[in-house]
Prior knowledge:
Layout: E1 2-8, E2 11-16, E3 26-35, H1 38-45, E4 60-67, E5 79-82, E6 85-86, E7 106-107, E8 119-123, E9 127-129, H2 136-139, H3 142-155, E10 162-166, H4 170-181, E11 186-191, H5 194-202, E12 207-210, H6 216-223, E13 229-234, H7 241-248, E14 249-257, H8 271-276, E15 280-283, H9 291-299, H10 305-308, E16 309-314, H11 318-322, E17 333-337
One zinc ion (ZN) binds near residues 88 and 93.
Amino acid sequence: xxxxxxxxxxxxxxxxxxxxxxxxxxxxxxxxxxxxxxxxxxxxxxxxxxxxxxxxxxxxxxxxxxxxxxxxxxxxxxxxxxxxxxxxxxxxxxxxxxxxxxxxxxxxxxxxxxxxxxxxxxxxxxxxxxxxxxxxxxxxxxxxxxxxxxxxxxxxxxxxxxxxxxxxxxxxxxxxxxxxxxxxxxxxxxxxxxxxxxxxxxxxxxxxxxxxxxxxxxxxxxxxxxxxxxxxxxxxxxxxxxxxxxxxxxxxxxxxxxxxxxxxxxxxxxxxxxxxxxxxxxxxxxxxxxxxxxxxxxxxxxxxxxxxxxxxxxxxxxxxxxxxxxxxxxxxxxxxxxx
Length: 339
Ligand SMILES: [Zn+2]
Ligand SMILES: [Zn+2]
């Protein structure tokens, strides 16, 4: 089959590789769409500890083409989305309801061959049927949406809450739609890129502020009657943003650290404000038990995939994208699709 292979950091090609075969409890899926994500770029740039060569791609949807010997719950032709995070089911964390901390964790598209290929193999427990009425392309968003749902479960936005979202890429805009459906009364979008502020306004954010604005906290105060926001989503991965998030938070507010900061990066915060405002700072990692809910959330249009997916490219064009040679403007989520 044809696959996009990152041979080593900075080296990407599309080439013929051996066709994968499903094991006894695995499913072989013909890939129809695979979303490009920051993680893929980290692998390309050598910023993630992985064993090269890698076939990346972990936001996958497709059609079942063959089944392992012991798989009874799917049939060929089923439309499916894949949860890339594989847990063992036997370790301490798996036995305590926290499979995302699995001591034997493996991810499709990181540790095993991923979705930038004609076919991909996944364990049957990682394969989810796509609800009728939801397109294969929209279903490729199931994994990022599932991650955002896990984060918002932890953040617990309440009716009437004022929410600030730092970072208005695909993830920030998924959070925007989820926060609205959970009853946020006002949503403030913050980003450094003017195009993104504009797109967020089109997607229904109430106020936008440029993250570089020296009067950011004052502007948030103006919007919130001087009281600050009730909930913050940090979706930039920029370590410096935590300080701003703490500043714009009101009394009793919660901050969700969702963006992936570079490992070992450190940042300055004002502990006094955490103490005085009784702030709660929450982390959120991947998508435990939220894939099925994500698919239903997409099917119901609570999250509208059409507003997030802005570009589709073929597998052959993808290496040029990785190398930064494909001029794509105003991009949110880019899908690699079957051509
Ligand atoms: Zn991703
Ligand atoms: Zn485990």
